[in-house]
Specification:
InterPro entries: Dual-sp_phosphatase_cat-dom, DUSP12, Prot-tyrosine_phosphatase-like, Tyr_Pase_dom, TYR_PHOSPHATASE_DUAL_dom. Pfam families: DSPc (PF00782). Belongs to the protein-tyrosine phosphatase family. Non-receptor class dual specificity subfamily. By secondary structure, the protein is of the alpha+beta class. The chain folds into two domains: about 1-165, Protein-Tyrosine Phosphatase, Chain A; about 215-335, no CATH class. It has helices at about 15, 20-25, 40-45, 65-80, 115-125, 130-140, 150-160, 170-185, 280-285, and strands at about 1-5, 10, 30-35, 50-55, 100-105, 215-220, 225-230, 245-250, 260-265, 270, 290-295, 300-305, 310, 315-320, 320-325, 330-335, 340-345, 350-354. The chain has a five-stranded mixed sheet. The protein has a four-stranded antiparallel sheet with strand order 10-15-12-11, with no helix packed on it. The protein has a three-stranded antiparallel sheet with strand order 7-6-16, with no helix packed on it. Strand 17 (about 340-345) and strand 18 form a beta hairpin.
Length: about 350
């Protein structure tokens, strides 16, 4: 085990197995176990350590973001027990001294899971970037290396501001959707019990106070029905010229013989989006792996979806692929105009600022 910073120790499960006297040797009063224990070690309970167990594996599909807030709170209770309130958006951490107690964060090998939560705490408490926080751990524990899945999620945490995990943040919702497809790409029930993955921004009233820079509105080209805001877009970068995705290759039926190669287009013909509320009937009701979207007002075809993924005209492969067709919709700036047919999906039609 290694002392990372202040009262933060990171290591493997070995000190637990060896019954190391953590209190007397390191002044450790709290133990954060990022491992699947069938039963909490008896000696930790007997010695009255404050214990928290996060029962996860070191895998490429585990959602660690759901645990970050509560684990940061647990570590705070050890290092800053007299803190006036737990709110990283209000408390000036730099003026609060540590208690003198220490916390031991461990997993099986002390390389991935435990390091991930130590890094997230350093980001949250000391305002460090992901790169700096990981370096701070590696400096004392060179073998530290969160797996790629954990690093991706720490990157999302950093983009959230690195202080608090917001369950409704667009990046987190997009990650959960992609992860659900990764876990079971053939499932037709991905969204059946996951209403929180649907976005309702087509009903939002856009005002100067909540309008993001360069926000746009997507509406049906035929009837001007409001469909989505650009804040629901899942952005992607067109593949480079050297990428295998930069060309569309057609092969002969039942053979690998190439019959045609076509370069991908420079302009994207799809807007890839989060699942939107008006899509629920199609996505939840039919439970198909792929299908089409019709405008909720005029029924004209405006997009489609494929849970296994599909390619944009630029060549980029998107999984899952939920899209609106650029040729079937209009993209207009949201700059305080009045849209006379904005439907709030309760049956009422009203004017709305857009």
């Amino acid at each position: 085990m290694d002392r990372i910073l202040g009262g933060i120790y990171v290591g493997s499960v070995q000190p637990i197995i060896d019954h190391t006297p953590l209190k007397s040797q390191y002044n450790i009063t709290h133990v954060l176990s990022i491992i699947k224990f069938k039963v909490l070690p008896e000696y930790l309970v007997r010695k009255s350590y404050a214990l928290k167990n996060v029962p996860i594996d070191d895998s490429d599909t585990v959602d660690i973001l759901q645990y970050i807030n509560e684990c940061n709170r647990f570590i705070d209770q050890c290092l800053y027990p007299n803190e006036p309130e737990y709110d990283p958006r209000k408390v000036n951490f730099k003026k609060i001294p540590q208690s003198g107690n220490a916390v031991f964060i461990h997993c099986h090998a002390g390389m991935s899971r435990s390091v991930t939560f130590a890094v997230s705490y350093l980001m949250y408490r000391f305002g460090l970037s992901l790169t700096t926080a990981l370096h701070a751990v590696k400096r004392k524990r060179p073998q530290a290396q969160p797996n790629d899945n954990f690093m991706d999620q720490l990157g999302i945490f950093e983009k959230m501001g690195g202080q608090y995990v917001d369950d409704n943040h667009i990046l987190y919702k997009q990650w959960k959707l992609k992860n659900a497809v990764k876990i079971n790409p053939d499932s037709t029930e991905i969204l059946t019990t996951n209403d929180e993955l649907f976005t309702n921004n087509e009903n939002c009233i856009v005002t100067p106070n909540n309008m993001q820079e360069d926000m746009s509105l997507i509406r049906c080209k035929k009837c001007r029905q409001r469909l989505a805001l650009s804040s629901s877009f899942i952005k992607h970068e067109p593949p480079s010229e050297e990428s295998s995705e930069s060309h569309f290759i057609r092969r002969a039926a039942g053979s690998r013989r190439v019959v045609d190669i076509e370069k991908s287009q420079d302009q994207c013909s799809h807007y890839f989006v989060e699942p939107l509320n008006w899509m629920k009937e199609e996505l939840q009701g039919k439970q198909q792996l792929e299908g089409k979207f019709n405008c909720p007002n005029c029924e004209s075809k405006i997009g489609g979806y494929n849970w296994k993924g599909s390619r944009c005209s630029c060549g980029k492969w998107m999984v899952p692929a939920i899209h609106l067709l650029a040729a079937k919709v209009d993209k207009v700036p949201a700059k305080g105009k009045i849209l006379t047919n904005a439907v709030n999906f309760t049956g009422e039609t009203k004017n709305a600022n857009v």
